[in-house]
């Protein structure tokens, strides 16, 4: 199966570079391009991409608003990876909260970009623990986070589910969590599902971000 990718970036040169990298792979194909977030809904409806590589900063409609719109209005929406120049970009944090499945830096090596696209199609999320911790710490320090919603979290997770969430926050895969906790990958998958359901999180990234925001996990 060929994985269809939509490129969204207001810089034509960036799109050209990504297209060259992606189209060189036998299982990947760039199905369309857009220069602004405002073009994304129409492109998604017409092209039905599997993955969107979405710039976060664009002139008319930024990647945050475009991500939120797609995930809220499109049945079985594509996976969305936001692309940014700086890992501490506050736009990245907001895009992840909106439901993006991870982020990449524009200076990321080609092989890591390809790996990221394949990962999100397989249902994984791109968590970069150090970057997420830093973004969460900055957000809380600026007054954007805090204990809001904390009561909804504390006491709802079992001890084992809390262990799983903390390992998720370190960027561990299900297999790595299973090895750490001496349980089966299927058991971990069940715990992850329970964590997401109890925290009303769309995916692992949102669960980790909300855990930091409510103080369930304290950035170190």
From TrEMBL:
PROSITE patterns from the UniProt entry: HTH_LUXR_1, HTH_LUXR_2, RESPONSE_REGULATORY
Signal peptide: none
SUPFAM superfamilies recorded: C-terminal effector domain of the bipartite response regulators (SSF46894), CheY-like (SSF52172)
InterPro entries noted in UniProt: CheY-like_superfamily (IPR011006), NreC/VraR/RcsB-like_REC (IPR058245), Sig_transdc_resp-reg_C-effctor (IPR016032), Sig_transdc_resp-reg_receiver (IPR001789), Tscrpt_reg_LuxR_C (IPR000792), WalR-like (IPR039420)
Listed SMART domains: HTH_LUXR (SM00421), REC (SM00448)
Domain Response regulatory: 4-121
Keywords (A to Z) from UniProt: DNA-binding, Phosphoprotein, Transcription, Transcription regulation
Positions of the HTH luxR-type domain: 150-215
Sites bearing 4-aspartylphosphate, chain numbering: 55
PANTHER family, per the entry: TRANSCRIPTIONAL REGULATORY PROTEIN NARL-RELATED, TWO-COMPONENT RESPONSE REGULATOR
Protein name in UniProt: Response regulator
Species in which this protein is naturally found: Actinomadura rugatobispora
